[in-house]
From TrEMBL:
<feature type="transmembrane region" description="Helical">
    <location>
        <begin position="444"/>
        <end position="463"/>
    </location>
</feature>
<keyword id="KW-1133">Transmembrane helix</keyword>
<feature type="transmembrane region" description="Helical">
    <location>
        <begin position="512"/>
        <end position="532"/>
    </location>
</feature>
<dbReference type="Pfam" id="PF02036">
    <property type="entry name" value="SCP2"/>
</dbReference>
<feature type="domain" description="Flavodoxin-like fold">
    <location>
        <begin position="1"/>
        <end position="147"/>
    </location>
</feature>
<dbReference type="InterPro" id="IPR003680">
    <property type="entry name" value="Flavodoxin_fold"/>
</dbReference>
<keyword id="KW-0812">Transmembrane</keyword>
<keyword id="KW-0285">Flavoprotein</keyword>
<keyword id="KW-0288">FMN</keyword>
<dbReference type="InterPro" id="IPR036527">
    <property type="entry name" value="SCP2_sterol-bd_dom_sf"/>
</dbReference>
<feature type="transmembrane region" description="Helical">
    <location>
        <begin position="469"/>
        <end position="491"/>
    </location>
</feature>
<dbReference type="InterPro" id="IPR029039">
    <property type="entry name" value="Flavoprotein-like_sf"/>
</dbReference>
<dbReference type="Pfam" id="PF02525">
    <property type="entry name" value="Flavodoxin_2"/>
</dbReference>
<protein>
    <submittedName>
        <fullName>NAD(P)H-dependent oxidoreductase</fullName>
    </submittedName>
</protein>
<keyword id="KW-0472">Membrane</keyword>
<feature type="transmembrane region" description="Helical">
    <location>
        <begin position="538"/>
        <end position="558"/>
    </location>
</feature>
<dbReference type="InterPro" id="IPR003033">
    <property type="entry name" value="SCP2_sterol-bd_dom"/>
</dbReference>
Length: 570
């Protein structure tokens, strides 16, 4: 298929729209090799149409203007697919590509004919029955609704409603924002799918169109991010009306601050996800050491506000938990864009953290630009609510409870241990309706099952009980060799879910904790052998519960102390 791409953006190769077009072309070529010709319209000499109609009556099919349209017109005739790519300019197209369209007049005959819709048109001078049209356009508005209607009608009338496929992308400006790469990449992958479908069927499916029409950001967040990108303070009252901010809203702390760092902070607040704090509040201070500027972010129950020192005192935030980040601005930008791993950069001493460190472990969830959490992802609010209501979480108790009958009931009686173990196994299987039954749960359940089989076969409790501790301890230790150690799978729920697993410091902390617990239970297996041979045999389970209690206190201390120590750079 011969494809002619008309890149009508004044930005040329830097065009946001062109990124969408390139993704569509990749989709086309995924279905088969295409013969693609690209034209950057801004680089061509294309004069406005003179309206002389010489191309109709004096020099049929030839324009009297001698410029680059002489080479472009034959390409328009020969192409099987003409792909128009341009941004929305004043609810239409940029002037130069509009001039190109006007100069297509030689391709038509002067005679009048009626279109199927009842309108009038001029028939084509050439047989273009083989030709199809695709329009790709992006804009800076938060929605395509009531913005693209004029263009939609223009292309439908000019090239036939059933012969034109359109991809109108609002929020196109975020395609160049590195911090939003996860979301824009998702959108571009849908565009590729649309390209493949078009190559196969000369149409994009309704389901794919619905995906493309879904906004990358919520309207409110996008408007806040877009407004902040200009680096100009928004007036307290504006023609836009809704959403204006002024003194008292937190914007006053940024009054007159129009540097790149101020823009970054304004945009950062737009992605605040209060759900990550579960109704709590905190203060996050970010000090850009290379710029000599510090921003105080009040993480409230509903929104994030940037406060001046005076506002911070008046707002009563002094009593809230405080986390302070000291970093060069360049480093923080690289972390935000994904070029640097935040946890690894911190362990390498590229920035320091002081104060309450728990906040750092939740940073990905607090400022959710990935779309994986909060209410600002690519899903709408109703879909988010439904998805959350259906989601299940992990629960470490399922792993631990599996062995309680063998540790507590079995030392008293083999019969009691066997019956309680069978009952526990049934209950744990039923727990799958509420909790996730993952690899660690299945390993634990298998251990309980082996214990049941051993007891049913008449194996002595003096063997089964120590073996269960060895099995349990080895399970924990071996999980340290995998990317996600056992405790991380469960403690992640308190640190933003799966996003916490991307934090190298969080994973390292849990690897140490998991190893410590594994060693503890292997050691427990050793002294259990002696306990079972002593007068305290029946109380083995109760005695063995003392060391886990102490280890639990150590764990609670260590999971706060170790990350904070690593972050302090001391």
């Amino acid at each position: 298929m011969k494809v002619l791409v008309l890149n009508g953006s004044p930005r040329g190769q830097k065009s946001n729209t062109l990124r969408i077009t390139e993704a569509f072309l990749e989709g086309l070529e995924a279905a088969g090799k295409q013969e693609i010709t690209r034209i950057d319209v801004r680089e061509k000499k294309i004069e406005p149409c003179l309206g002389c109609f010489a191309c109709w009556k004096d020099t049929p099919g030839k324009c009297v203007i001698k410029d680059d349209m002489e080479a472009i017109l034959p390409l328009l005739v020969e192409s099987d697919l003409v792909l128009w790519s341009f941004p929305l300019y004043y609810f239409s197209m940029p002037s130069k590509i509009k001039a190109l369209m006007d100069r297509m007049l030689p391709l038509n005959l002067p005679f009048m004919e009626e279109r199927p819709d009842g309108g009038a048109s001029h028939p084509s001078r050439y047989d273009l029955s083989h030709q199809r049209t695709v329009v790709v356009s992006s804009c800076g508005f938060f929605s395509a609704t009531n913005n693209y209607e004029a263009l939609d009608a223009q292309f439908s009338i000019a090239f036939g409603k059933n012969n034109v496929e359109k991809i109108f992308c609002p929020q196109g400006e975020i395609l160049q924002v590195k911090e939003l790469k996860a979301r824009t990449d998702e959108y571009l992958s849908i565009v590729r799918k649309a390209g493949t479908e078009y190559a196969e069927n000369f149409a994009v499916s309704q389901s794919t169109k619905a995906e493309l029409e879904r906004p990358m950001l919520s309207e409110q967040i996008y408007a806040q991010v877009a407004d902040a990108s200009w680096g100009i303070e928004k007036p307290a009252s504006s023609a836009a009306g809704a959403g204006s901010v002024g003194p008292g809203s937190g914007e006053s702390a940024l009054a007159g601050a129009n540097g790149e760092d101020a823009v970054f902070i304004r945009q950062m607040t737009a992605f605040y996800n209060p759900e990550a704090l579960s109704g709590a509040e905190a203060v996050l201070e970010i000090s850009f050491t290379d710029l000599g500027r510090t921003y105080r972010l009040h993480l409230g129950k509903e929104k994030c506000a940037v406060l001046s020192a005076e506002e911070a005192a008046n707002a009563g935030t002094a009593k809230l938990p405080l986390t302070r980040i000291e970093t060069p601005y360049s480093v923080w930008k690289q972390i935000s864009s994904g070029e640097l791993d935040g946890a690894e950069a911190m362990m390498q001493g590229k920035y320091r953290v002081s104060g309450k460190f728990d906040l750092m472990m939740k940073m990905d969830a607090l400022f959710d630009v990935s779309g994986e959490g909060g209410s600002s992802g690519v899903l709408n609010d109703a879909q988010k609510t439904l998805s959350k209501s259906r989601s299940k979480k992990t629960n470490m108790n399922l792993v631990i409870f599996a062995f309680l009958p063998l540790w507590i009931a079995l030392p008293f009686s083999s019969r009691a241990g066997l019956i309680s173990s069978i009952v526990m196994l049934i209950l744990l299987q039923a727990a799958g309706s509420r909790w996730i039954i993952g690899i660690h749960e299945r390993i634990a359940f298998s251990g309980l099952g082996l214990g049941i089989l051993a007891l049913a076969a008449g194996v002595s409790p003096h063997i089964v009980i120590p073996f269960s501790y060895v099995y349990f301890g080895m399970h924990w230790l071996l999980s340290c060799a995998f990317p996600v150690p056992l405790t991380a799978e469960y403690s992640k729920n308190g640190y933003g879910g799966d996003s916490a697993l991307k934090n190298a410091l969080f994973v390292k902390t849990n690897r140490i904790i998991t190893a410590a617990w594994g060693i503890l239970y292997l050691a427990t297996a050793v002294w259990t052998v002696f306990l079972l041979s002593s007068p305290l045999s029946a109380w083995t389970g109760a005695i063995n519960s003392l060391t886990p209690a102490l280890c639990g206190l150590w764990t609670a201390w260590f999971q706060k102390w170790y990350p904070a120590k690593a972050a302090s750079g001391k």
